[in-house]
Amino acid sequence: MSKFWEDYPDITEELEDITGIIVKNVKSSEKEFDEAISPLVNAGGKMLRPAFLLLSAKFGEYDKDKMHNLGAAIEMMHMATLVHDDVVDESKLRRGVETVQHKYSKEYAVYIGDFLFCQCFIMLSGFDYSTENLRDISKAISKICMGEIRQYNMRYLKNTSLRKYIKVISGKTAALFSISFYTGAKESKCDEKTSKLLGRVGYYIGMAFQIIDDLLDYSGDSYKLGKNAQSDLIKGYYTLPLIYAMAEDRENRISTILDNSSLNNEDIKEINILVNEFKGIEKAQNLANMYTKKAFDYIEKLPECESKQVIKHVAQKLLNRNF
Amino acid sequence: MSKFWEDYPDITEELEDITGIIVKNVKSSEKEFDEAISPLVNAGGKMLRPAFLLLSAKFGEYDKDKMHNLGAAIEMMHMATLVHDDVVDESKLRRGVETVQHKYSKEYAVYIGDFLFCQCFIMLSGFDYSTENLRDISKAISKICMGEIRQYNMRYLKNTSLRKYIKVISGKTAALFSISFYTGAKESKCDEKTSKLLGRVGYYIGMAFQIIDDLLDYSGDSYKLGKNAQSDLIKGYYTLPLIYAMAEDRENRISTILDNSSLNNEDIKEINILVNEFKGIEKAQNLANMYTKKAFDYIEKLPECESKQVIKHVAQKLLNRNF
Question: For residues A173 and A209, is the Cβ–Cβ distance under 8 A?
Answer without folding.
Answer: yes
